[in-house]
């Protein structure tokens, strides 16, 4: 049976699954689960088209990896068939460990367990099931494979992951200014001393890439309304866990209930053999179904927050350049009290936070540019105007969000 | 407060909400629910990008309505501001009555209740809440408004509903051959004797529209793999209802449980005041959460089917030009029996069906072409080659789908 | 020196020139000339974006050829490196023999010399210059290469030439309904018994391709206004030749003057060694520069027609289903006479013609579909509805165009 | 007769001509001439798709103007019908005064006559022909119309001219990173105290706009290969004029010959009534036809340069950060002498130049941002990171181009 397959993709036209191993990975329940986890979590509350999944993103990143490696081959670099397959496998699986609404969930239910760690647990489990066929892929993912550029294409400031997600998020949100020209970027890649580099003539493309990334952060990933919705879901989960731990029986799928009731650390995945299976049972539907079930729960805090989120009656949110002081917070708090919120419920309806962003981090593994004279320069040094320098600046914003129109149920 | 708003849409760029009424409708929980109902149900199993919702489709159809009415105004037709708003409101709300996985659900849980009827119940309920602000919109929707073309733009063989869904489905599936050129179609519309007509120079565009529609049917809406997945979900719901009615307690959100346990008719929506509220509680998450919950249910039929669907281990499906006879069915049945399926379980793992399609129905309200000499012709008569005639032919296909690799759980 | 090169293309993103031979061909003056010949001649008079050249089209067809051959390789067909290069070379050069405003010019100046014949003369000349490096390409072009499918990909009803020009013409005119989904078409190609075939699952895509082709013919290639402009340019050239032959000195580049003054046949290209060089000197600029020069020529017919064409004051044109009789022509003729046109000038200001089109010609080398059972069927027999049948029907239209508002100069 | 018309545009879909006046302007020979002048001159030598004309650009800018004014109307600003038409007329005509290969020609043949001045001469001439129907448009163009924002939309750092040309040039070159998101930009425009401003929430879009502009400059407008081709055409015209002035008879259309043989200043357009008519006779074809005619001229410098340009055998070009000194120039000069170029011919085959660019000029009329608190800030002050500051920096590059492989003819 020929397992090669072509998948339609509005972003790239078609994505080819080019080997039996890749087909088997896509077909595996671990990977099929990603069909039910949206890449951008709650972002469709702002951008209604942003419903694309981690499944599609992972396929897209695999596609870019295959395109990029072919471009490198055409420049004369030797890349063996098993390397080609392993690099695609590694990028395909790089997001396996994400739970639903990843950043929200990780801040409440799986605190202290990085999704990358779970990814690795799952990749190793898959490797066992597949008798070692993922050995090289895992080395590339972990960064232990000798040819360094493979890891850089999987995880760096210019990896196929970022290229696909910026491309795809820009496409599905409709924020077309965020488009990065992945086609051209890929044709500008090269290898020098086993490092991933960019040809000098790709300098403008990289600047555009970083600029687009910055734009996407402020326009999409850190959009005020999205931060507000995330804050609400976070408070819902805090309350649910609080009630759960206090013995309250909450509506939830069995797998989700388990994570609501227990606090797990990474090592539990080793000692509790079925924990990985349970984790693999989680997706967006578990969270939404619970939110829907909880909207009629007797606890007024829980039911009010759920009803609000479902009907897009969101917290009001304001940004500040410094942490907001009592002169800002006190009046909000009073308004909530006036609305009938009790002292001990206040924290569920008023949340402060901060958010930071920079488009390019000089201190990390840099983006290297290969100048025409053969020298390798950090992109920040290669550019002829201070734009890149500007993009390395960290921008930090503080916010308060609160339920301006809360009316407690029950 | 200014309620005008602009919404990003990858398909059209931007969609404007151009009045307070429209804003209030979009903001209403009835409409927000559509955020959680995918336009194409299970189709993302074949086309992973096809995750767009009825929410986005309804906004898109409203956008096309506004564009089309403006084009008609520019051609000198008088259209009053309240008509402009009402037509947009009507098309915005036209799909309110859809449940999740509409065709599947309606075949099991709400048999005999057309979604259009529920839409009308909900529109009337909204009209009450809004003190009659939807009077004209409802007339247009029902076809009682005197100027006939408004209804035709909401519901006919050339309505804004079809234009948006073909456009949008083509876009998100990536089946670009299905693109209909909505821009040009809209510019070709005209009004003659209060009927919606197409200018003669738009003939080729209409042919292309019908051709694209046919292509989308076979390539997307009636795709074999999708029919197979739908058959599986149908069998899951049949089994769940059977168990429910037999008194078994099944995991479900409260609203979904209600529909699983009871059989409702349209009149129940009048007599049970909270039934509409419960219906409005249903969305895709309820169904998926139950499928996830049921995958560990003790009933082997239910759990097996759920596990299969979740992991995309689908029924095999074959098409036939005539209803398949025993020479085809018997061997399949025997194979299932060999695999350990009991006689009384067979019907859950082997399903026959038929599917029909035609791109243009002559007997319905026709698409009228205004010839240069002023005559109105049915498109099928106006075209100079028999293509359109060909597109009126009903194509009927029969299928069998069955669980080739079923291995019953438990 | 590395001659590989990447060329930007708004249609496909990037086009790669993948070998030294291909680079040398692109670089050759014969091919660079195509930069100055628009693919659609006068069509920008209707579609102002339709300015793309035969140069870009030839590169695009080469790109599709490379994509298609790679897709066939991935399906397991052996295609040797020299074949890959030769097929690309052949399609790259397939339009070398086109003059400017090909159909117009061939009807007046090079009557009886098919552009394909000149292409072959030029390919053979190039082959001499390149010491036989085009041997295989020429065999493929002529159809004498043993593996038949190469020729079919260069010239048949489903060749890379058509795919690119439909795609490209649709893109640059903005007639997006003419888009053919070349990506998918290419992935549906296969080889069976050395013939080019389409997989059965590509049936809908082929139907769409033929439908798009028909639409492009009526919407673009045979657009009324374009036919009218072509008729005017034809009459301009007729008059210019008449004057030239009568010894009048007309403004023209030396190469163009030679073709205006002499009537050549194909054999002259053999006997007059510099004729090919002169032909290669012709491009759109020669024609336009002359039209501009002639607008102040003392001959009132010539100058009037040139002025009219330059200022887009075009003949009026009407279509008829039968050849127009005297009851139609006589009044037009009288109107022209009333406007001061002399009897012997009439033919320059009133032109009749006919135009025919069919989307698919059954009697030619058919498009073959490989059914799932392995049978090869003509597409017209494989389709389940009579659409294709309909598309084989020849549509014939008759037209008259005439200078409604002519006012003779001088 | 209804003169309203819809024109296909691959960039925006459709462009509407919305009034009789606008139709008459488009139809006028002055405007039709722009069909034959490419927007980007020689740029198709690098980007083969870049063949779009000033005609299409002017229509596109008119389209954006109409979209922008409608968006302003929707925000509650009163804009009268005659203003709407005048602003569209003004932007439609803003490039009338461009000759073919504008920057090249102006540096040789019309030195000291800015194309804006000729535009104004032509607008005033049109206004006379049209009995004053362009009065307001001319005021807006000149900046004397009281409502200042109209002029800013026609000519400023955020005018519809730039928006369209960046958009269009990005589209036709295929440099998609240069896309500016004109749709969103337009929705962010507002008016404050009769000045054109941008809403604060459009800040990121403006940054993206400036960034895209910078990218387009270096990637397209100042592309090395394009600068080289322009240098060659410049030298060709210098030589042709030199020979012309020396009494040599050169092949040229009558209108082009006139400009080759005479040196005109702006005032000549007043005193020589037919000079404007002659200017209006010039387009790209005159230049190319002459280059083609001159390739067989006896002067070896002229014929060699023409042959080289036609066959894309271009000067080699190098960039420097400082003006190149003798250590760079002398060896090149010697190489040319070795190749048989005479001393007095050297200047035709070796050219130095400089090129500067900045994305945003602070000292000019700034782009104003309307902050949420109502304040107007210069974009460079409103942005939270120093990107914009960086974009104001002038970048200056020096180049030498020379005929590395020149072999003199004859």
Automatic annotation (TrEMBL), chains A, B, C, D:
Residues 50-175 form the HD/PDEase domain. Pfam families: HD, HD_assoc_2. GO terms for biological process: dGTP catabolic process. GO terms for molecular function: dGTPase activity. This is HD domain-containing protein. InterPro entries: dGTPase-like, HD/PDEase_dom, HD_assoc_2, HD_domain. It comes from the Bacteria.
């Amino acid at each position: 049976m020929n397992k090669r397959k072509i998948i339609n993709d509005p972003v790239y036209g078609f994505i080819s699954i080019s080997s039996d191993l890749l087909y088997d990975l896509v077909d595996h329940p671990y990977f099929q689960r990603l069909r039910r986890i949206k890449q951008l979590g709650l972002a469709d509350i702002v951008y209604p088209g942003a419903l694309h999944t981690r499944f599609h993103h992972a396929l897209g990143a695999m596609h870019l990896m295959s395109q990029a490696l072919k471009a490198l081959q055409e420049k004369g670099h030797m890349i063996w068939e098993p390397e080609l397959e392993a690099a695609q496998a590694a990028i395909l699986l790089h997001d396996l460990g994400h739970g639903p609404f990843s950043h929200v969930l990780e801040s409440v239910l799986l605190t202290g367990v990085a999704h990358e760690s779970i990814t690795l647990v799952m990749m190793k489990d898959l490797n066992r099931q597949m008798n070692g066929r993922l050995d090289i892929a895992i080395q590339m993912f972990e960064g232990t494979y000798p040819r360094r550029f493979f890891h850089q294409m999987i995880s760096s400031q210019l990896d196929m992951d970022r290229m696909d997600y910026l491309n795809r998020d820009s496409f599905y949100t409709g924020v077309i200014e965020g488009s990065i020209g992945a086609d051209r970027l890929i044709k500008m890649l090269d290898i020098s001393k086993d490092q991933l580099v960019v040809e000098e003539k790709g300098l403008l493309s990289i600047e555009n890439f970083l600029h687009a990334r910055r734009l996407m952060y402020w326009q999409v990933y850190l959009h005020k309304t999205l931060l507000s919705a995330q804050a609400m879901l976070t408070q819902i989960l805090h309350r649910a866990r609080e009630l759960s731990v206090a013995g309250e029986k909450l509506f939830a799928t069995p797998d989700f209930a388990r994570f609501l009731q227990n606090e797990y650390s990474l090592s539990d995945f080793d000692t509790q053999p079925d924990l990985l299976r349970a984790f693999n049972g989680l997706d967006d539907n578990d969270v939404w179904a619970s939110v829907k079930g909880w909207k009629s729960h007797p606890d007024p805090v829980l039911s009010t927050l759920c009803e609000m989120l479902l009907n897009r009656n969101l917290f009001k949110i304001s940004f500040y350049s410094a942490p907001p002081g009592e002169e800002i917070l006190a009046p909000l708090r009073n308004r909530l009290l006036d609305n009938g919120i009790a002292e001990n419920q206040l924290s569920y309806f008023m949340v402060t936070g901060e958010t930071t962003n920079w488009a390019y981090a000089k201190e990390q593994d840099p983006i290297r540019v290969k100048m025409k004279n053969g020298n390798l320069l950090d992109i920040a040094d290669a550019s002829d105007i201070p734009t890149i320098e500007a993009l390395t600046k960290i921008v930090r914003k503080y916010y308060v969000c609160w339920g301006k129109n809360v009316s407690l149920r029950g």
